[in-house]
Amino acid sequence: MKILVCGGAGYIGSHTCVALGQLGHEVVVFDNLSNSTRVAIDRMAELVGRPVAFIQGDIRERRDLARAFAGGVDCVIHFAALKSVGESCSRPLTYFDNNISGTITLLQAMEAAQVSRMVFSSSATVYGNSEQVPVTESAPLQATNPYGRTKLIMEELIRDYSASQPGFSGVLLRYFNPVGAHPSGRIGESPTGTPANLMPYVTQVAIKRREQLQVFGGDYPTRDGTGVRDYVHVVDLAEAHASAVRWAMTQQGCIALNLGTGCGYSVLELIRTFERTTGARVPYRIVERRPGDVAELWADVSMAREVLGWQARHGLERMCEDAWRWQLNNPDGYQVA
Ligand code: NAD
Ligand code: UD1
């Protein structure tokens, strides 16, 4: 199968391209490199053992997309989005334009090219301040910031478009907390500036690039007072995309699926597991809660198991080990070869 991977040079996209390539699929990476580099594409090729086709382009540009669809495409995976919650609050229009306008233009290009299968990167952020855990796909949806609103609207665009096209299949994958890296240590998450998410901050403290982790809130109604999340290994996520492509190739309609492990771990549990498995130290200090955070969120993952036959295989220890190997081998991410 020939799969066009929009945003394929990024963190989750690069792992997915490697998984698809290793399964023998033909992958075309389409990316404007706004949050990624060509080095990631070279490393993917190294892991797959053959060149990976790359088109530098923007999903908001019809002409760029026309080039990408020119050679025929069976399925699109749509990772291409801006993803920083904080930045989306200060620059909402940038997020609306990139994420929402981009998705509309991409769907138009798919229609023009008669491509009717899409796997889409959604997020647990669409559940907002969910009251109930584990959260199922039928829980109420709510945006708590502009980034989350773009994900909700993108889901709705794809759902409405799918309803209008009898032959269309759309898989909306709601990731919980993707962490870890490829076990080779060659590809991983390469945040620019100060990491906003927990695991990259932990690895940067462990390698002494940052002094101390701030644990946001020690007074949540959880087992140790710190926030609980469903961390999922990025290699497991990559495999879920391969399963979702299979579903899209054989089924019709639009479905939303949670992707997590179904287990919640607190911030302190993650720190302890990281220290135990890697031997590195993570000095931390408990500070005020981060505005907008919920106490606990983890997934009911039964639907992904039933529909895709997929379930996460890696536990928190492997997530920590692989994130650490990536950090050690690439102290500055992709900045240093
Ligand atoms: P990432 O930033 O590493 O990857 C996104 C890629 O899309 C980047 O390579 C970027 O250059 C590209 N891109 C952005 N806008 C583009 C545009 N207009 N045209 C072409 N390319 C464009 O992010 P990621 O962590 O790999 O996330 C992938 C997707 O998963 C995103 O849609 C994100 O919102 C979603 N998601 C991520 C997480 C997470 O924690 N990483 C959680 C839930 C959902
Ligand atoms: C965040 C995003 C969410 C996105 C998800 C995956 C926010 C408010 N939400 O979720 O939209 O889908 O990432 O990318 O940004 N923590 C610390 N210290 C830190 C960083 C985090 O204690 O330096 C804590 C948080 O309070 C939380 C947990 O670690 O309890 C996980 O945080 P994070 O990795 O940022 O993910 P989420 O907040 O779950």
Keywords:
binds nicotinamide-adenine-dinucleotide; 337 residues; 7-stranded parallel sheet; 3-stranded mixed sheet; alpha/beta; binds uridine-diphosphate-N-acetylglucosamine; single chain
Structure characterization notes:
The protein is an alpha/beta fold and 337 residues long. It has a domain at 2-178 and 231-260: NAD(P)-binding Rossmann-like Domain (Rossmann fold), CATH 3.40.50.720. It is 40% helix and 18% strand. It contains eleven helices and 14 strands. It has helices at 11-22, 38-48, 62-69, 85-90, 92-112, 146-164, 198-206, 234-250, 267-278, 302-308, 316-329, and strands at residues 2-6, 26-31, 53-56, 75-78, 117-123, 169-175, 177-179, 213-216, 228-229, 231-233, 253-259, 265-266, 284-287, 296-297. A seven-stranded parallel beta sheet has the order 3-2-1-4-5-6-11, with helices on both faces. It is globular and about 55 Å long. The two termini are 32 Å apart. The relative contact order is 0.15. The mean pLDDT is 97. The chain binds nicotinamide-adenine-dinucleotide (NAD) and uridine-diphosphate-N-acetylglucosamine. Uridine-diphosphate-N-acetylglucosamine (UD1) binds at residues 85, 123-125, 148, 177, 196-198, 201, 213-216, 227, 229, 267, 290, 292-293.
